[in-house]
Amino acid sequence: MEDMSWFGVRSIFRHRPLGVYEERITIWKARSTDEAIERAEAEAIEYCSYLDEVEYAHFSEAYRFSGDPEDGAEVFSLMRESNRPPGEYVKRFFATGEERTGSL
Fold it and tell me: Does 32 map to a domain?
């Protein structure tokens, strides 16, 4: 029997009435990346069934992490090549001004 590992899986959803996309990260104990994504995709479809006019964008990516979840555990990581300086990188990919976030 293969060892089980924890995976963080990021999935994308479209909320049509709100005109927004949502990124959700869920964690799964699975034997492989493929199994974790398969389970996350099944949950994504179920998640959409509870919400009006929300669709799964059929995009998920997984990150295998070592150990068990605990305070401060890294559950997802994605690396992207870029020559942009940090401020430009964040503005281009994460803080575009179109996010729905609370203010501090």
Answer: yes
User: What is the structure's pLDDT at 89?
Assistant: 87
CA distance 44 to 38: 10
CB burial class (10 A; 0-12, 13-18, 19+) of residue 14?
middle
Q: What is the edge-to-edge ordering of all strands in the sheet holding 20-30?
A: 20-30, 5-15, 54-65
Q: Which residue shows structure tokens 């998920």?
A: 60
Specify if 37 maps to a domain. yes
39 pLDDT band (50/70/90 cuts)?
A: very high
Residue 83 lies in a domain: no
| Domain-located, residue 45 | yes
The alpha carbon of residue 88 and the mean position of all alpha carbons in its chain are separated, in whole angstroms, by 22
Q: 54 lies in which domain range? A: 1-67
What gap in Å lies between CA 25 and CA 98, rounded to an integer?
20
Give Dmax (Cα) for the chain: 47
Model confidence pTM above 0.85:
no
